[in-house]
Design brief:
The protein has one domain: Rossmann fold (3-Layer(aba) Sandwich), CATH 3.40.50. The strands form 2 sheets. The protein has an 8-stranded mixed β-sheet with strand order 2-1-3-4-8-7-10-9, with helices on both faces. A two-stranded antiparallel ribbon has the order 5-6. The longest helix is centred in the last third of the chain and has 16 residues. Helix 2 packs across helix 7 and helix 5 packs parallel to helix 6. It is an alpha/beta fold. The chain is built from 12 helices and 10 strands. It is globular, with a radius of gyration of 19 Å.
């Protein structure tokens, strides 16, 4: 019983300020990226990290890319639009002892950065990529994005999007990721647990977070407030195991959540260093 109460006290002492600089975050009121930031830092805390000295963060351009830099008290690199994954790959190859984490939005990761995303999964690059998917290009005015749901109104599709959205979590699994999952900001506990698991795994790990953007997405899409968007997330959510038993027509308008893949395979870092050692032996 005493051990139980110690654990309760430990968890209730958590605060994001433990890991963040005293700066005001740039997100709009009601933005889901506040929830994503909280979930990640809570996961770090519950894993026992007293600080972020064992982490390096990379991000590109977009709202989600502002999560770590300059707000986390950690080493971080703000890269060009869509180029955070190759930069993170370089860091991990040079410093395999560090946890290298990429934060980015759907436009950054699977729009301009899509090829980097696919090849990082194929190589099983030893990094964690967290994608805040607000389903539009939120920072630049709410234009249609690769992940915008079909028939959704945006600033550039006033009569509704005529494209099918990209399934990023499924693509990561098919391309070779060691771990791929999707949750929404309406599932904070499940999201936190997925982040904890992903931090502890090796290889390319991808977590897609469906997050509300009341300013650039919600207004055009017809939502009156954040509460309606979160209710939409909850009502539309279908677990992967359930989705596997449904046909395409039944899945229309649904958000498939859960773990898409978890497997063990050699990582890029392991393969590179193994070949280097072999080359050194043969060179003697």
């Amino acid at each position: 019983m005493q051990k139980y109460w110690k654990e309760v006290v430990k968890i209730t002492e958590f605060s994001v300020q433990k890991y963040m600089r005293s700066l005001r975050q740039p997100f709009c009121p009601g933005c889901g990226l506040f929830s994503l930031t909280h979930a990640f830092l809570k996961a770090v805390y519950e894993l026992g990290y007293e600080n972020l000295s064992k982490f390096v963060f990379c991000s590109g351009i977009g709202c989600s890319s502002w999560i770590p830099s300059p707000y986390f008290m950690a080493d971080s690199i703000h890269t060009l639009h869509g180029r955070s994954i190759p930069v993170a790959t370089s860091i991990k190859l040079l410093r395999p002892d560090l946890n290298v984490v990429v934060f980015g939005g759907d436009g950054d990761i699977v729009g301009i950065g899509l090829n980097h995303f696919i090849h990082a999964a194929r190589r099983n690059t030893d990094i964690l990529v967290i994608m805040g998917n607000n389903m539009v290009y939120g920072m630049t005015g709410g234009q249609v994005a690769p992940t915008t749901p079909l028939k959704t109104r945006t600033t550039t599709t006033p009569y509704g999007s005529f494209e099918y959205p990209l399934d990023a979590a499924k693509l990561a699994a098919v391309a070779g990721a060691s771990y791929s999952a999707r949750w929404t900001t309406a599932h904070p506990k499940e999201l936190k647990e997925a982040l904890k698991k992903a931090i502890g795994l090796d290889g390319f790990r991808f977590i897609e977070v469906i997050t509300q953007c009341p300013t650039a997405f919600g207004r055009k899409a017809g939502f009156r407030n954040v509460g309606e968007m979160l209710k939409w997330f909850k009502d539309s959510a279908v677990l992967v195991q359930q989705a596997d038993k449904m046909d395409q027509e039944e899945l229309e308008g649904k958000i498939v959540i859960g773990e898409f893949v978890e497997r063990k395979r050699a990582t890029l870092v392991e393969n590179v260093y193994a070949i280097m050692k072999e080359a050194q032996r043969n060179g003697k």
